Amino acid sequence: MKNAWTLLCCVVLAAALTACKSSDAVPAEGEPTADEASAEAPEATADEGATAKVVAKGAAPSGIPAPPDVAAPPEGAKSSESGLAWTVLQEGTGDKHPAEADVVTVNYTGWTTEGRMFDSSVKRGRPAEFALNRVIKGWTEGVQLMVAGEKRRFWIPGDLAYGEAAPNDPHAAMGPPRGTLVFDIELVSLKEAPKPPDTPKDVAKIPKKAKKTKSGLASRVLSKGTGTEHPVATSVVTVHYSGWTTDGKMFDSSVVRGNPATFGLNQVIPGWTEGLQLMVVGETRRIWIPEDLAYKGRAGRPAGMLVFDVELLEIKN
Fold first, then answer.
1. How far apart are CA 254 and CA 266, in angstroms?
2. Active-site residue, from 47, 154, 156, 183
3. Is 59 exposed, middle or buried (0-12, 13-18, 19+ CB in 10 A)?
4. Catalytic one among 24, 47, 156, 162?
C-alpha cells in the first residue's frame, strides 16, 4: 500500500490492522494517510477498519496515456441511476458477477478527466486484490457489473469517488484526486466472501462466567491455546477477530475479509492492548470492552461497549 493514490484496502481496528493480500493499493474510500491509519489501529476501529479506508500518499506514477474519451463518456456509453457510466472494452469469459463483499483481483489504471494518470496496477506489474465493500462506491457498484476476463472503462462521478474539487482549492493537490475519475478495469478473478460468524448469544450483556479486570474489561476463553507466553504492551501480534456492538451488529471482521490482522498492541484501543496480553498463541477469547477502553464516544466509531472474538495466531516481541 505504498503507491500514490493507490486504492488502499481498509483495515479495521485501526486501519492498520490488515491489508490487501497483494501489496498494491486500491481505491479506498476516505483519506487519512497511511501513517494516521496505522497509528490508530483498533482504534483502529475495530471498525474503523470496517469503515475506515485510507489512501496512500506519494508521487503519482508516470504514464500510461489517457484514453481519447477520458474527458467524458462517449455517445453509446451506458449509465446507472447513481451517475456511474461505462463502456465494455472486452467481453469476459466468466458467468458469475461478484457480490458486494466478495474479494476480487483486478488490473486497473485511473486518470482524471484532464488525462493525468494517478494510479495503475498495470504500471506496477501486479494486480490488486480487495473486498468490493472496502473501496470507493463507484468501484463497489461498477465491478459488480463485470464477469471474470471482462474489461470496462468507468467514469465515476466525484460523489462516488473522493468528492468534488472545490474551485481554487489550494489543498487540492495534497489529497486523493477529486471530481470525476476514469478507470480502465480488468476483472481477473473473484472469490466469494467467507460466511460471517454468528453473533454471540451473550453479546448484549457480560455473562457471570466472564472474568473482569479492575479496568472493567471482561473476557472468557472460548478455546485454549497451545502457547505459553503472553504478549506485552509493545508486542506485534497477528490475530483473527470479529467485533459486534451490544445490539448484535457486526461492524468488523478479519474473518470475513479472509485475512488476519497484524498490529502493535501499543497502536490500538486500550481494551485491545489490555485484553490481548491475557492470551497465548492458539487461544480464542471473547472480550467485552467498555466504552472508556474503546472509542469513548468518538464520532463515526462504534459506540458503547464492544464485544470481540479474538484468536491469537502469532506474537512478535
1. 19
2. 183
3. exposed
4. 162
* One-letter identity of residue 229: E
- 293: DSSP letter: G
Catalytic annotation present for 35: no
Give me the half-sphere count of Cα atoms (radius 13 Å) on the Cβ side of residue 66: 18
The phi, psi pair for 81, rounded to 5°, reads: -60, -25
Q: What residue type is assigned to position 58 of the chain?
A: G
Domains of the chain: 60-191 (3.10.50.40), 211-316 (3.10.50.40)
Specify whether 295 is catalytic: no
Tens digits of residue pLDDT in 201-223:
999 999 999 999 999 999 999 99
118 is catalytic: yes
Residues whose CB is less than 8 angstroms from the CB of residue 294 and which lie 6 or more positions away in sequence, other chains included: 46, 269, 270, 271, 301, 302, 305, 306
Q: Which listed residue (24, 47, 130, 136) is catalytic?
A: 136
- The 3-state DSSP class for residue 38 equals helix
Residue that has been written with the C-alpha cell 512478535 in this structure: 316
The model's pLDDT over 152-210, given as tens digits with 9 standing for 90+, comes to 999 999 999 999 877 777 666 677 899 999 999 999 999 988 888 999 999 999 999 99
